[in-house]
Write a structure and sequence with these properties.
This protein is α+β, with helices and mostly antiparallel strands. It has two domains: 2-76; 92-139, no CATH class. 54% of the residues lie in helices and 12% in strands. It is built from three helices and five strands. Helix 1 (2-27) packs antiparallel against helix 2 (34-76).
Length: 141
């Protein structure tokens, strides 16, 4: 609705500005008339004000749509976190329990007999980064 209103204001403003420009040749003709010049300038400025108002309404509408659209992007682009503590970035995933773990929570979860670990696919650090926990070195590739 607001975009239609903005478009109508721009169209009406352009028509007013055109009428204001049409008064200039009569104001500067062989018999110049200063009142016609001031009237033409008044109509021209009114038209330009309507055009500016229409552009403002359209910009506010687009800005509102961009703000509501960026809220959904921040939810999608959220940084991944450990599923156990929720604070740190996950570095490893337990394939048996399907849990992404950070280096601190891995020590509590670690059981070499039952768990199978793979590098976490949800981490955003550089490939090949080395993590250490409790004297163990984990190299993720």
């Amino acid at each position: 609705m607001a975009t239609k209103t903005g478009t109508w204001l721009i169209g009406i403003g352009v028509c007013f500005a055109f009428l204001g420009f049409c008064a200039f040749p009569a104001a500067f003709g062989p018999n110049p008339d200063k009142t016609l010049l001031s009237g033409g300038l008044t109509v021209l400025s009114t038209g330009m004000t309507l055009v500016a108002g229409g552009l403002y309404i359209k910009a506010r509408t687009l800005r509102g749509a961009a703000v509501s659209g960026s809220a959904s992007q921040t939810n999608r682009g959220r940084k991944a976190s450990c599923e156990k503590c929720g604070k740190n970035e996950p570095v490893i995933q337990c394939r048996v329990h399907q849990v992404h773990l950070c280096g601190g929570c891995l020590g509590d979860h670690y059981d070499f007999r039952t768990c199978a670990y793979v590098p976490s696919t949800r981490r955003s650090t550089a490939k090949g980064a080395a993590y250490t926990h409790a004297g163990r070195s984990l190299t993720l590739s």
